[in-house]
Design a protein that fits this description.
CATH class of the largest domain: Alpha Beta
Strand content: 15-25%
Order of helices and strands: HEHHEEHHEEEHEHHEEEH
Distance between the termini: 49 Å
Largest sheet: 7 strands, mixed
Strand order of the largest sheet: 4-5-6-7-8-9-10
Length: 229
């Protein structure tokens, strides 16, 4: 298909894929199920694949969709995917975390992070509220432990930053969670106030039990709802 310019629901599909960076086909259809049945939806996805704007791959018997570089040029989210197994696993889990968190009533909108103008590059950003106050929440997915200097440097950026009010670090290993707790305890009060740590050992491509997760803020353990409700 030559010179295909997506409009209407075609462009909505491209933007939705870009918003999540990587999304399972059933999850994408769920976003459009109120607008159309599966057959016209599938035809639009196939047309976008033929046009080279999106591409598909299969993992664990599930079809996933991502933007191509060409697709990122027409999407408002410039999240095209350069395939690498480590980053693929990370991005699939990060996208699932974001989808699950946006079901929480106080988290209003969000997307995988794509803004090169900021000096901090979280995995995702959520626009949230608590009472009458609105704030921005960075999402950092830590599946492996980074070296201490790198962690301290990023913690410090969040402490000094103006664009993002808070950062939620999410772990699937208690050892990594405990290590970051110790590092955070050595930061100044402003930084400690901005950063929340969250551990869910059952975290995967499909699961994230944030309500039951263990959270850490200002050198004390809390439930998720105690912090964000």
């Amino acid at each position: 298909m030559q010179n295909f310019s997506p409009l209407g629901t075609y462009l909505e599909i491209v933007n939705t894929i870009g918003r999540w960076k990587v999304i399972p086909l059933p999850g994408l259809f769920e976003s459009f199920s109120k607008q159309m049945t599966y057959t016209p939806f599938a035809k639009r996805v196939q047309a976008l694949e033929r046009a080279g704007l999106i591409r598909a791959f299969t993992k664990n018997r599930t079809k996933y969709l991502v933007l191509t570089q060409e697709g990122s040029r027409v999407s408002k989210y410039k999240n095209y995917y350069n395939e690498n197994e480590d980053s693929l696993n990370h991005d699939m889990i990060a996208a699932n975390i974001l989808r699950q968190l946006l079901r929480f009533e106080n988290f209003q909108e969000g997307h995988m992070f794509v803004d090169d103008r900021w000096d901090i590059d979280p995995d995702a950003v959520i626009f949230a509220k608590r009472g009458d106050a609105k704030y921005t929440l960075a999402i950092e997915v830590e599946l492996t432990q980074k070296v201490r200097t790198r962690v301290v440097n990023k913690f410090s950026k969040y402490g000094l930053g103006k664009n993002l009010n808070h950062a939620l670090y999410i772990f699937n290993k208690e050892s990594c969670f405990e290590a970051y707790k110790q590092i955070l305890g050595g930061m100044n009060d402003t930084t400690q106030g901005k950063i929340i740590l969250c551990c869910d050992t059952g975290l995967s491509f499909e699961n994230f039990s944030y309500i039951e997760s263990t959270c850490w803020h200002r050198e004390a353990q809390h439930s998720f709802l105690q912090i964000f409700k």
